Amino acid sequence: MTTGARARDESGWVDLGPVEELKRTPLRQVVLGRTRIALSWQDGRFGAVSGVCNHAGGPLGDGTLDGEYLVCPWHHYKYHRSTGEGEPGFEADRVPRHELREEGGRLLVNLTPATTRNKPPHERHPLERPVAREPGPVRLLGISTTAMDPAFPRYSTSDALLEIALAHGATLGAETKLLKANALRVRHCEGYYSKSAHACTWPCSITQMDPEDQMAEVYEALVFWADAVILSSPIRWGSASSLYFKLIERMNCIQNQVTIRDRVLIRNKAAAFIITGGQDNVQSVAGQMLMFFSELGFDFPQFPFIAHSRGWSAEDMEQNVAFVQQNAELHEGARALATRTVEKAAALVGAAAGAVRLPRGGRKAHRMGIVDLP
Ligand code: FES
Question: What's the pTM?
Answer without folding.
Answer: 0.87
